[in-house]
Design goal:
The structure holds two protein chains of two kinds. By secondary structure, chain A is mainly alpha-helical. In chain A, strands 1-2 form a two-stranded antiparallel sheet. In chain A, β1 and β2 form a beta hairpin. In chain A, α8 packs across α10, α10 packs antiparallel against α13 and α12 packs antiparallel against α13. By secondary structure, chain B is α/β, with parallel strands linked by helices. Chain B has two domains: 196 residues, D-Maltodextrin-Binding Protein, domain 2; 202 residues, Periplasmic binding protein-like II (D-Maltodextrin-Binding Protein, domain 2, 3-Layer(aba) Sandwich). Helices cover 43% and strands 12% of the residues of chain B. Chain B is built from 16 helices and twelve strands. In chain B, the strands form four sheets. Chain B has a five-stranded mixed sheet. A three-stranded antiparallel sheet of chain B has the order 10-7-11. In chain B, β1, α2 and β2 form a beta-alpha-beta unit. The radius of gyration of chain B is 22 Å and the shape is globular. In chain B, 51% of the residues are buried. The chains are: A mainly alpha, B alpha/beta. Chains A and B meet through α6 and α12 of A and α1, α3, α4, α15 and α16 of B.
Chain lengths: 313, 439
């Protein structure tokens, strides 16, 4: 749609015959479109076109580059429902989603609230310290966590030094502890990120509303819950959708921190998608189908959250 | 000390990642430049190589470069360290997107991955049958990995013959010598391992958790595999596999085999003297020798064999790899280079053998006197002669196109069994996972 308008705009804005003068509002509109076009084209070519190609791929089967249309076309999608490894990775991803996202968002909210206290000293320092993990690359922090939680790593040494455990815990070798380490990593890495969103939103809350609540005799918990949180709702919705989206596409931590082990029990869907497409006998069509399932899941969950969270009327 | 080592590993991994990423930028040496076979002067004389182990195959490549440079002064190699997992991913990505010019001239491929990659991407590498290499000088069993329909696609590099290496000073504390560990069964090995553990508190073996290398070595030592002759998975009702999994489970339960979480931890285990032995392909010798303070304290012998399995032997292999010339590689120069070094220079093998433990597949190299030389690091054992003798007795087994799928499925089953799961059920699950991947 934009390209035809674009050409129209180019022609119209050219200094050729000045028969028909544009109204200021029209001109305003056109300027907007012209500014939009480069970014829109880039998104179209680098994002939507590959997505369309992937959709076509997801309906093909075959090994390597030797691909044919699947019989029936939804064969790869039907196959996913038979795939026990896929179901396992789907389950893993939802475990992360259900446990990690609420913990992280609540923690971020609490921290943001604490740091928003006007009487707090060294505010900048605290904010920086909590936000800093977000400046670390996903791969580096995953590798550092992997090293820290090795059997002979820092965490075991520390716990043994404090006589809390008798012998080293094989953190990454057992399903429960491996998932715990992964979730811990996620919380460490992303809490500060979400906190910044809440801080920004808190700055926009009129302080008088909070003072009014205090004057009316509400304690700090009730003030927080009945005055601050409702005003943060749009931001909570935004962070929830972003975190859900991010968790469903989780890859780096699964790939680098736990390597999907033990026995696939920490592997995420995206990691499995990678393994299917690039590490094993490449089944690109099947991998594309899996990526579309992730897309659908993200879309559905975002929709649900918007319906549940957005009660503006 | 340990900490700094770990930190170094972490830093090295990071560096590898960043190098791999910048590698995507496409600062590749222009390929196919001159194509003058060994000609002086004219054309581009640089070959790009992807390979992974600095102590082993990278070292060997660098030595090969020096040898070839004697007759070809302008010749240069651009060796890019690429861990095998990354290399496989790159090959897949390049082949899938048909961006062939991203390929190096030469790359090393795991023997177990050769059939898979050739079946998925037949045009990935160039046929070498008519490259002038004398193929009779390589053993049939090793050539078979990289041969499809009678056409050779790879120059075999190492065979991966398995050795059982022992810290003689540690087992001596339990009153044992290398002879006690020679020609034994796994039952006996576990018994001896317990003695060592009682006296020294150290485990005999270690390995990355969730890796089935040990299982695969046990299987091959009995000529067994995860596939039958038709290529169908045989993970259930496989007597050798059942025994191998049971043996492995006992090793872990008795504390004789320590499962660690990474390759670095594995290497650290014996380098730091916390583990009294190593069972792996002979290429691990290069890594063992990194611990210079342990010189003279190591000896090698053959592997324990599986109890109660027909055809069980004390010999096996793990790993092994071959050089391939990529589709876009400078064929004339690369083929001549490989022909003059890896497939034609005893001088070359005499250099790389003692330093890197690169036991040649090239038969004429076996006649070299260097093989019989005692190796001071291994308490003056003629290690390489022993390995060649072991290698001749390794039973052949078939791996097939779906080797990695089957291996990973068995790894997952193994993890479940170690965690207390039922063996038959876990293996049946692995079987169905592989069948699923194949259909």
């Amino acid at each position: 749609m934009s390209s035809t308008t674009a050409e129209g705009a180019m022609v119209a804005s050219a200094p050729a015959p000045r028969k028909r003068r544009m109204l200021p509002s029209q001109r305003h509109n056109l300027t907007g479109w012209v500014f939009l076009i480069p970014a829109a084209l880039l998104i179209l070519i680098t994002s939507f076109w590959p997505m369309f190609e992937a959709l076509l791929l997801s309906m093909q089967t075959g090994k390597g580059t030797n691909l044919n249309w699947a019989e029936p076309l939804w064969y790869n999608y039907a196959r996913l429902f038979q795939d026990t490894t896929f179901k396992l990775t789907l389950g893993n991803t939802f475990v992360y989603l259900i446990i990690q996202v609420p913990i992280m968002l609540v923690l971020a909210l609490v921290l943001a609230n604490l740091l928003n206290n006007p009487n707090l000293r060294w505010k900048g320092l605290w904010r920086t310290a909590i936000f800093l993990p977000c400046a670390v690359s996903l791969v580096s922090y995953s590798l550092v966590f992997r090293t820290m939680f090795a059997t002979d790593g820092f965490v075991n040494d520390m716990l043994m030094g404090m006589n809390l455990i008798g012998e080293p815990i094989n953190w990454l070798g057992q399903t429960g502890t491996a998932r715990f380490v992964l979730i811990l990593g996620l919380v460490w890495r992303w809490t500060g990120y979400n906190m910044v969103f809440y801080l920004a939103a808190l700055q926009n809350i009129d302080h008088s509303s909070i003072e009014a609540a205090r004057v009316d005799g509400a304690n700090s918990w009730r003030t927080f819950w009945y005055v601050t949180v409702p005003q943060l709702k749009p931001m909570i919705l935004l962070t929830a959708i972003m975190s859900t989206n991010g968790t469903l596409q989780l890859f780096d931590e699964s790939f680098n921190l736990t390597r999907g082990g033990p026995a696939y029990t920490t592997m995420t869907m995206s990691h499995y998608l990678y393994e299917l497409s690039f590490q094993k006998n490449p089944n690109i069509g099947y991998g594309s189908a899996l990526s579309y399932v992730i897309l659908i899941l993200v879309a559905v969950l975002a929709l649900v959250q918007m319906k549940v969270g957005d009660k503006r009327d | 000390m340990k900490k700094t080592k770990l930190a170094k590993f972490a830093a090295a991994s990071l560096l590898a990642v960043s190098v791999a990423l910048t590698g995507c930028g496409g600062d590749k040496a222009p390929e196919g430049g001159g194509g003058t076979t060994g000609g002086e002067g004219g054309g581009d004389q640089t070959l790009t190589v992807w390979t992974w182990d600095p102590a082993f195959n990278i070292f060997s490549m660098k030595e090969a470069e020096k040898i070839y440079q004697k007759d070809h002064p302008g010749f240069k190699l651009d060796i890019q360290e690429t861990p095998w997992d990354d290399l496989q991913t790159k090959l897949t990505t390049i082949a899938q997107s048909q961006s062939w010019d991203e390929l190096p001239d030469i790359f090393l491929m795991q023997n177990n991955a050769f059939q898979k990659n050739l079946s998925n991407y037949p045009e990935l590498v160039q046929p070498l049958t008519d490259s002038g290499i004398n193929w009779d000088e390589f053993p049939e069993s090793v050539k078979a990995f990289s041969t499809v329909d009678g056409v050779n696609y790879g120059v075999p590099f190492d065979a991966g013959t398995a050795i059982s290496a022992l810290r003689t000073d540690l087992i001596a504390e339990a009153g044992l010598t290398t002879a006690d560990f020679t020609d034994i069964t796994w039952d006996k090995y576990i018994e001896l391992g317990k003695q060592v553990k009682d006296k020294t508190g150290k485990a005999m073996l270690s390995g990355p958790a969730g890796s089935s290398d040990m299982i695969m070595m046990m299987l091959q030592s009995a000529g067994a595999s995860l596939f039958d002759d038709q290529g169908n998975p045989t993970i259930v009702d496989n007597a050798a596999l059942n025994t191998a999994v049971e043996t492995y489970t006992r090793l872990v339960k008795e504390g004789i085999f320590v499962e660690v979480n990474s390759w670095d931890e594995y290497v650290g285990g014996f380098i730091n003297g916390n583990i009294a032995g190593v069972i792996n392909g002979v290429w691990i010798a290069g890594t063992i020798q990194a611990a210079e303070d342990q010189a003279g304290k190591w000896e090698i012998t053959n592997l324990p064999k599986l109890d109660g399995i027909d055809g069980a032997t004390n010999f096996s292999a793990n790993g092994g790899s071959s050089w391939a010339i990529s589709k876009t590689g400078d064929f004339d120069l690369a083929a001549d280079f490989l022909k003059s070094t890896f497939a034609g220079s005893t001088e070359f093998y005499d250099i790389i053998l003692p330093k890197a433990g690169a036991v040649a597949n090239w038969i004429p190299a076996g006649a070299s006197a260097v093989y019989a030389e005692p190796q001071p690091f291994f308490n003056d054992q003629p290690v390489f002669q022993m390995v060649v003798e072991f290698g001749a007795k390794v039973p052949a087994n078939n791996t097939g196109v779906y080797y990695y799928e089957a291996r990973d499925a068995v790894s997952a089953a193994l993890t479940k069994v170690i965690g207390g799961g039922d063996m038959a059920a876990s293996l049946a699950e692995a079987q169905s996972t592989v069948e699923f991947a194949m259909n």
